[in-house]
Amino acid sequence: MGTVLGWALPLMHPAWVAVGAAAALQGGPGQQPSQRVGSRFVGTVAGVVVTVLVAQVYRPGVWATVVLATVVHGVSRALPPGSLLARTLLNTPVALLLVNAALVPGPGLGPLAAYRLLDLTLGMCLGVAAALLVRGVPLRRVCAAVSAAVAATGPAVRERLRTGTAHAVSEGTAWQRTADLWTMHASVPAEEIRSTGTADRLWPALLAVRRLLSWNLLGGPTPPAPDDGARAGDFLHVLAGAARAGLPGSPGLRSALPHPPRTPEPAHDPELHRRLAALRSALERPAPPSPGAAPPNDAR
């Protein structure tokens, strides 16, 4: 929509409309779109002012522009991702200098800077409108990511207990699904303009899966226990099926769990039992327990 709008209007650099819309929807971990738009807009205005003032004193040639743009861009990339205002302030002169150098003969930095503000403001308004209308990651995709991570952990744990060592293929698949869940957790608050608490619900389950896989990978060799492996795999399969019914802690997920789903107790490693119980608890009750609190009685 930003690209079509940019070409339909008599703008000097139509692509900046789409860039502004994308800027309103991405970047800035933990910040809402309105906060990101404010930081980027203030940074753009400051960058435009600095560029115009410098251009009044010094008009760089093509090679000076390339060197200056490279240095400024490198400095901006060295800043932390959350420093949106500073990063935008530095990126704006780079864009203006490069476009001005490419447009020969061009309108000059003054008109180009004015259009930069117009295009970016139009694009940011479009991006905020999209953020208001699109409510974020669909719930079914969030639930599917949790279910896939838990389901992939089942074969990894089963093979670990069956053979006594980690199985490379199933372990790699489980870590990949866990990485997908991590990405989902990171994208949920960035895509929602209203706080829903979804990320807070995902975090305990994500940690529980990672701790289970860490035991699976880093634990020392143990005697093979095929029966324990089958019970643990079946238990994780049940948890994965329930995770598709709703977010962690939701009534839909809890009702999908059989009662009581007894947590397996492998004979050779009680730590695995604790981590399996922690995963079930994270899916049923994602709120972190208070320090020193005893585990719930029905966690078994």
Q: What attributes characterize this protein structure?
A:
single chain; 300 residues; mainly alpha; 12 helices; 0% strand; elongated
Could you please describe the fold and organization of this structure?
This protein has 300 residues and is mainly α. Helix content is 71%, strand content 0%. It contains twelve helices and no strands. Helix 2 packs across helix 6 and helix 3 (33-57) runs antiparallel to helix 6. It is elongated. The termini are far apart.
* Ends distance: 53 Å
Helix content, binned percent: over 70%
| Number of distinct beta strands | 0
Low-pLDDT runs of 5+ residues are 289-300
- Provide a count of the helices: 12
Q: How much of the polypeptide forms β-strand, as a percent range?
A: under 5%
Topology:
Blueprint: H1 2-8, H2 15-25, H3 33-57, H4 62-78, H5 84-102, H6 109-133, H7 139-163, H8 168-191, H9 198-218, H10 226-243, H11 251-256, H12 270-284
Helix pairs in contact: 1-2, 2-6, 3-5, 3-6, 4-5, 5-6, 7-8, 7-9, 7-10, 8-9, 9-12
